[in-house]
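So, can you check?
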Amino acid sequence: ILLVIWRPWRFNFSGRTLVFFALYGSALGIMNLLFYSALARIPLGIAVALEFTGPLTLSLILSRRAIDSLWVILATAGLMLLYPGDMPEAALDPIGIFFALGAGVCWALYIVFGKISGGKDEGGAVTALGMTTAALVVIPVGISAPLTGLLAGHLWLLALAVAIFSSALPYSLEMIALRRLPTQAFGIMMSLEPALAALIGQVRLNEHLLTRQWLAIVSIIVASAGSAACAPVTKHS
């Protein structure tokens, strides 16, 4: 879908850039694979919040401001609140947590390699090539599924819906937003994702979170939004 929309063959990319495309796409593919694996084990809102620790950590590592200590404390507090302690009812699948944090690491790598790969006028083409690479990376996992499942018609319809609404459309809109919004505004809006994910999980998936889990999500959201809001002012033309 993205190849048709962005037509990356119009651009002449160097060999070095193609290498970063491969790294960018690999990070993207593994990120999505780990994220969906996490969703099978832990609630949607918590998975998104844990995944957010990746880009948040990257932002804090690249910064040298004193106020960033506050965001580190808030993010750490959020992670600690997700630890069940002596509350069995708050327990989360540790493998699911590992997958979500792994997706966060891949998200940080995706940002790094995407920034190296993409120019101002080539962002859509970079996304299309990166997503194509990501698809190639996860194909071995996909074909390992039972053949009967792969041949189910309703599964292909669901897969097409996921492809459009969780990948092709949002990544394209993200590229457009990045070029029109200040980085801070974009980062703050992105920080709302865990809250929206938690609400959708509660309404559509019947995933009811405990008070401490909601506090953990809010803590990570505030840390992410605060880090974005306090970043040096930059704008995309």
